[in-house]
UniProtKB/TrEMBL annotation:
GO terms for molecular function: poly(A)-specific ribonuclease activity. This is PAN2 UCH domain-containing protein. Pfam families: UCH_1. GO terms for cellular component: P-body; PAN complex. CDD domains: Peptidase_C19. It comes from Asterophora parasitica. SUPFAM superfamilies: Cysteine proteinases. Residues 3-36 form the PAN2 UCH domain. One of its GO terms (biological process) is nuclear-transcribed mRNA poly(A) tail shortening. PANTHER family: DEADENYLATION COMPLEX CATALYTIC SUBUNIT PAN2, PAN2-PAN3 DEADENYLATION COMPLEX CATALYTIC SUBUNIT PAN2. It comes from the Eukaryota.
């Protein structure tokens, strides 16, 4: 793509837990900036023109549970990590920190709606 044109990245994901839902047209979802939309399998798997070009195709075996033993892994996340201010910056100025860590009573509980805002900054022209 030329430098004067901007690409727009989206994700099309098949959600196995949605396969038997009668209220959805298919288990396929389109993640597009601020919108998550259920789409048909036909739309998910079609690439009709130059405007819809796959950048990454990810496959996952659906029978891994038969081969892997997950019993050694914890079944709960350690919520205390949300109460620590962790930074990988080598030159962090503590005077510029303008936030407080979560108090125990502010930690998410079952049913809490949580969102992640991740900003990605381009430091230099990408090389492929």
């Amino acid at each position: 793509m030329s430098k004067d044109k901007h690409s727009h990245l989206v994700a099309i994901v098949k959600v196995p837990e949605a396969e038997d839902r009668d209220d959805l047209q298919s288990p396929w979802f389109l993640f597009n900036d601020f919108v998550v939309r259920n789409i048909s399998e036909e739309e998910a798997l079609s690439f009709p023109d130059k405007w819809k070009v796959p950048a990454i195709i990810y496959y996952e075996r659906d029978d891994l549970g038969e081969f892997l033993d997950y019993s050694g892994l914890p079944d709960r996340a350690d919520e205390t990590i949300l109460s620590h201010d962790t930074s990988i910056s080598l030159n962090r100025d503590p005077r510029l920190v303008k936030h407080d860590v979560l108090r125990p009573e502010e930690l998410p509980r079952p049913g809490t709606l949580v969102a992640i805002d991740a900003e990605f900054v381009l430091m230099q022209q990408l090389e492929t």
